[in-house]
Write a structure and sequence with these properties.
Layout lengths: L2 H26 L18 E2 L3 E8 L3 E10 L2 E10 L1 H6 L2 E13 L4 E10 L3 E2 L3 E8 L4 E16 L8 E9 L4
Antiparallel strand pairs: 1-9, 2-3, 3-4, 4-8, 5-6, 5-7, 5-9, 9-10
Length: about 180
């Protein structure tokens, strides 16, 4: 085989592999890559949405979500504070990822929309997070459910040759069964 043709073939394969790896990398960074839209939420996880202003709390073993919302027709405003539980605050220094999502549910109990309400940035301290969102609800939305995914990390340094040791914890809550 002519060496010039062989080099061009190798370069073509490298370009294809590079493009594929870039697409995989971009997809993995997308918080909407994996969606629950169309899935059924159990009644125990549905929070009915009522007209007017309301204050509520949603609590799990990892966090408490203290929130207030105002619903007027399809207009929806929500503000809140994510308060991480002490097992996360005391045992981990930072979050490498965190996404709190609202899942909007229709009268059949199916998720018809999901929105990120709050997210943490790389190596953000494990501390309260505040958010405020204004949304237009899809018609027939009658309830909301919450869910989250996160990764906490405690990193220590000073080991042999400056090595860093890390203790990591993945935590999540899904609204679907």
């Amino acid at each position: 085989m002519d060496p010039k043709i062989r080099i061009k073939s190798i370069q073509s394969i490298q370009r294809i592999l590079s493009a594929f790896l870039i697409l995989i990398g971009m997809a993995s960074c997308s918080p909407r890559l994996f969606s629950y839209e169309g899935q059924t939420v159990g009644e125990e996880n549905r929070i009915p949405l009522k007209e007017g202003s309301h204050q509520e709390q949603w609590k799990t073993g990892d966090l408490a979500l203290n929130y207030a919302y105002r619903k007027k027709g399809d207009d929806f405003e929500i503000t809140g504070t994510v308060v991480f539980d002490k097992h996360l605050r005391y045992n981990y220094r930072s979050l490498t990822t965190f996404f709190l999502r609202a899942y909007f549910i229709d009268s059949a109990g199916k998720i018809v929309d999901e929105q990120v309400l709050s997210s943490g940035s790389y190596l953000q301290d494990v501390e309260d997070m505040y958010f405020k969102r204004s949304l237009i609800l899809i018609p027939d939305v009658v309830a909301v459910a919450f869910g989250y995914t996160g990764h906490a990390q405690e990193q220590s340094g000073g080991g042999i040759l400056g090595q860093h040791d890390s203790i990591d914890w993945d935590f999540w809550k899904s609204p679907v069964r």
